[in-house]
Design goal:
The structure is a single chain. The chain has 24 helices and no strands. It has helices spanning about 10-25, 30-45, 50-60, 65-80, 90-100, 110-120, 130-145, 150-155, 160-165, 175-180, 185-205, 210-215, 225-235, 235-250, 255-270, 275-295, 300-310, 310-325, 330-340, 345-365, 370-380, 385-400, 405-425, 430-440.
Length: about 450
């Protein structure tokens, strides 16, 4: 019954437990371990009278058991009170009850939150300590947030309390992690809470939701950087990846700039967890999205996807799609602004290789647009000699493609050779520059 949840008053488990405890009478036939389990369950459900009666049986065997009874009494008297930063004073009945448990020279803390911690620290690990930790934490949360009471923390679903803590700001991330541990919140539920907040943050960013609407909502709203900071509350990268993937699969017709951020983040968390099945699913999904984005003209989303995911097959597919749409300039401009933030030298080198490889493949057909893209990429990567050689090759192709030389053909070829000569001259290839300009003058 204790595993069913805190204070499930009126539930079938609760009623059955109380009936069993009362029917057992003096509990003479029970072993100490069974008495301890029954005591824990009665504490869990807040049955103060039965806790006191059973506590009397265990008092001589378990040191500090009476402090658990005192904690239940404090919860009964103050569980629905709102705690302030300093907290209300302990009720007279609770104060005298606690004082009777202590030697005359010991003083009971007068504030409720301090008294709860006082009791918790004196409760044995094997009998009710988990319950005591949760009660103490619920009082602490109530003292931080005026919107909740200790009983509401104990009785409400874990997701709601976690969202309340997260809304209070990054300074309380440690408290949120403590809550997850103390209340044993499943990692899958924590991941769902964080991803819902990330989802909302993206909505605010991409749909211009007002700050007032954000602050009045129950869920916090995160951008990607804030999500990464909060991810430690969950502590399970694979669950975070799963929750993010679930958003993609269940929320249809998402804006491309919205969807691509979720895909990237899901991929990164699956990759961090070494969950290769998830990585494969996200890679396949991302490759399909590149084709879709290319068809509908969402080329900026392709660039974002390419920069966010390092999988080589996806990157090559994205580069090919941009080159085919004559939108490679978007990627090169993005790379110029992001080169300083690039993770590794090898990744920069790989991107250069992938772009040039794609353009060389496409440039084989002699298309002027492809040749222009190749020149632009070579300039971007400081491949100046290759640019000049490419101009010479294009001049030869212009001359070779014409059935017979005419003035227009010769003029186009001469311009290309003259440009190549200037480039050779700028990089110190004097002999090659002279040869090229000589050919241009002959034309």
């Amino acid at each position: 019954a204790a595993a069913s949840g805190p204070f499930m008053l009126g539930s079938a488990e609760h009623e059955a437990l109380v009936h069993y405890a009362r029917a057992s009478g003096s509990w003479d036939g029970m072993s100490d371990p069974l008495l301890g389990m029954l005591f824990d369950a009665l504490v869990w459900y807040g049955e103060i009278d039965l806790v006191k009666a059973l506590g009397g049986r265990l008092e001589g065997k378990v040191e500090g058991i009476r402090f658990l009874e005192a904690l239940v009494k404090v919860l009964a008297d103050h569980g629905d009170d709102q705690m302030s930063s300093s907290g209300p004073s302990l009720a007279g009945g609770c104060l005298s009850y606690l004082q009777d448990l202590l030697p005359s020279d010991c003083r009971v803390p007068s504030l409720v939150v301090d008294a709860v911690a006082f009791c918790r620290d004196r409760i044995p690990r094997d009998y009710g300590r988990e319950f005591a930790d949760r009660v103490a934490f619920s009082f602490e949360v109530s003292s931080i947030s005026s919107s909740v009471t200790p009983n509401s923390v104990l009785r409400s679903n874990a997701e709601g309390t976690l969202q309340t803590l997260l809304r209070l700001g990054p300074d309380l991330l440690g408290r949120a992690r403590e809550f997850v541990d103390v209340f044993r919140v499943p990692r899958a539920k924590v991941a769902d809470v964080l991803v819902k907040s990330f989802f909302k943050g993206l909505l605010i960013c991409h749909r211009d939701v007002s700050d007032e609407a954000s602050s009045s909502s129950y869920e916090p709203a995160y951008n990607a950087e804030e999500f990464d900071k909060c991810a430690g509350v969950c502590g399970d990268d694979a669950e975070l990846g799963r929750a993010l993937l679930n958003i993609i699969l269940t929320k249809h017709h998402l804006p491309s700039e919205f969807e691509v951020e979720v895909i990237i983040l899901a991929y990164q968390y699956y990759e961090a967890a070494h969950a290769m099945n998830g990585v494969d699913v996200l890679t396949t999904l991302a490759i399909g999205r590149v084709s879709t984005y290319a068809e509908i003209g969402e080329h900026k989303a392709i660039v974002r996807l390419l920069n966010g995911i390092g999988q080589s097959k996806l990157r090559q597919h994205a580069i090919d799609a941009l080159a085919a749409s004559d939108k490679l300039e978007l990627l090169l401009k993005k790379r110029t602004s992001n080169d300083a933030k690039e993770r590794t030298v090898s990744r920069r080198r790989n991107l250069k290789r992938e772009i040039l490889s794609s353009l060389h493949r496409r440039g084989g057909g002699g298309d002027a647009g492809d040749a222009g893209d190749l020149d632009m990429a070579l300039h971007h990567f400081n491949k100046t000699r290759l640019v000049a050689n490419g101009l010479v090759r294009r001049a030869e192709e212009v001359l070779g493609s014409a059935g017979r030389a005419d003035e227009g053909t010769s003029l186009r070829a001469a311009r290309l050779l003259s440009e190549a000569s200037s480039i050779f001259q700028s990089i110190g290839c004097v002999r090659r520059a002279a040869t090229t300009i000589h050919r241009a003058r002959e034309l």
